[in-house]
Amino acid sequence: MNPQSEYVMLHPRVVRYAHWCWAFGVIILIGSGWQIYNQEPLFGFSFPHWLTIGLGSDEGAERVHNDIGLAGALLWHFAAMWLLLISLSVYVIYGIVSGHFRKHFAPIWPRQVLSDVFYFFRGRLDHRLGMRNAVQKLLYVFAVLSMIFMVWSGLVLWKPVQFEELGVPIGNYEGARYVHFFGMASIVLFAIVHIALTLLVPKVLPPMITGKARRSAVAVEAQGEAL
Amino acid sequence: MTIDARLRDGGLSKSDFANLQRRLFLKRGLSLSALTLLTGCDITNTGPVDGFLRMISRMNDGVQTALFRPNKLARSFPESMVPREFRYNAQYGPDRFPIIDPTTWRLELAGAIASKQPWTLKQLQALPQTSYVARHVCVEGWSMIGRWGGVPLRTFLEKVGADTSAKYVMFRCDDPINYSSSIDMGSALHPQTILCLTYADRPIEPKFGAPMRLKATVKLGFKQPKYVTSIEVTNQYPGGYWEDLGYNWFAGV
């Protein structure tokens, strides 16, 4: 540790790589997932086709093969699932072993969350680099848990017979369809809030890419991890 | 001097050797992806992204083969959950399904099978039968419980002297789109993989694949072809109707 260094390490490499794997992987998974959903909608609506991810011209595929693009969507979905599965596993193991979770996410006090929400809407919630307020902690835990539920229900949908035991707590195959849908909805909701907040406080973005931030810009409590 | 020139001169260093190995590895990697492009023939898209995705799909076949538990039976359900009428699902509408005369229908055999005489429906009905109530899962996402009965494929393959160490079992169908599909030998020998002759204890209807369809609890619906008229045991990847269009080949559940 060099106390003279001008920069401090804000986001460890594992966290940054996992974050961008999710940003990329989740977009593919949701886009292709919406097309798969459209084949057999769980509820009384479908997703607009132009928002979904598949392969090639779907009109052509339908004319020739009577297929409206499910094959392409499935190829994307079952490729991107590895990106999520691997990055999430590495992140969770790292988070537990390194103490990252304990240090940054615990504890979350309900009273703190309420007062932070109150401050946020009055425009007075401070964002200091390197520190997470209670609302942020809650949102990040919510996002990570949603992804864990997506992987869980996804494995049950992929292998309802081989992973039968995994399906029991979430209502087996048909139950897993609902868990998978609402997990997706949670992640979409999170992503909207997450991106909106980043646009409101853009200074948080560069450290998420480089990992580094100027010492002077970082909260005193977070300056321990110098480069 | 290039590596190739130094190779000719016999003056190769340690790092040159590492470079060569890397080049060979890349070459092999490229031919591997070329191979996956070739096996997925008759595709509407043959771009590099499609090739990459199909390569991952091949990899997923391998993962699924490793995950497959040969003796794991699908969960059973009470008789009361079996509907009389199953859901109709085909590439052609319910006005176009084939009606096959069960008395003239024959099951042809091909490939690594010792006795290739065609089978009649009566002969199949005379073999030991099994039945189960299980969930049918469609690649589109829906699922449905039903009761299916028939001859275990394992019993049949052993009876006709098929080489059960071969890799694939291919099914061809007599329907308006010449449907076909192939499964791995491990799934073919699973106790709940049957040459299906009955649904809910009655002969299966023409609408659902009469006189014979494949039924398996360890595969998605599109891997369980209806109106089957031929079975081939082979070591050469045989593909299938949807598989050639990009559906994952193993498609196990």
Question: Can you put this structure into words, describing what you see?
Answer:
- The complex is a heterodimer of chains A (227) and B (253).
- Chain A is mainly α and 227 residues long.
- Chain A has a single domain (7-28, 75-222), classed as Up-down Bundle (Fumarate Reductase Cytochrome B subunit).
- Chain A is built from nine helices and two strands.
- Chain A has helices spanning 13-39, 58-65, 70-97, 100-105, 110-121, 134-158, 164-167, 172-200, 205-210, and strands at residues 7-9, 212-214.
- In chain A, strands 1-2 form a two-stranded antiparallel sheet.
- In chain A, helix 1 packs antiparallel against helix 3 (70-97) and helix 3 packs across helix 6 (134-158).
- Helix content of chain B is 29%, strand content 20%.
- Chain B contains seven helices and nine strands; from the N terminus they run αααβαββαββαββββα.
- Chain B has helices at 3-9, 14-39, 48-67, 121-125, 153-159, 185-188, 241-244; strands at 108-111, 130-137, 143-152, 168-173, 180-184, 194-199, 202-203, 213-215, 228-234.
Summarize the model shown:
With 227 residues, chain A is mostly helical. Chain A has helices spanning 13-39, 58-65, 70-97, 100-105, 110-121, 134-158, 164-167, 172-200, 205-210; strands spanning 7-9, 212-214.
In total, how many beta strands of chain A? Answer: 2
- CATH fold-level topology of the largest domain in chain B: Sulfite Oxidase, Chain A, domain 2
> Biggest protein-protein interface?
A-B, 32 and 35 residues
List the total number of helices of chain B. 7
Question: Largest sheet of chain B, described in full?
Answer: 5 strands, antiparallel
**Mean pLDDT level of chain B:** 87
Determine the number of helices of chain A (DSSP H or I, runs of at least 4 residues): 9
> What Rg of chain B, in angstroms, do the CA atoms define?
23 Å
Order of helices and strands of chain B: HHHEHEEHEEHEEEEH
In CATH, the architecture of chain A is Up-down Bundle
Major sheet of chain A: 2 strands, antiparallel
Distance between the termini of chain B: 56 Å
CATH class of the largest domain in chain B: Alpha Beta
Query: What level of helicity do the residues of chain B show?
Result: 25-40%
**From the structure provided, what is the oligomeric state, counting identical versus distinct chains?**
heterodimer
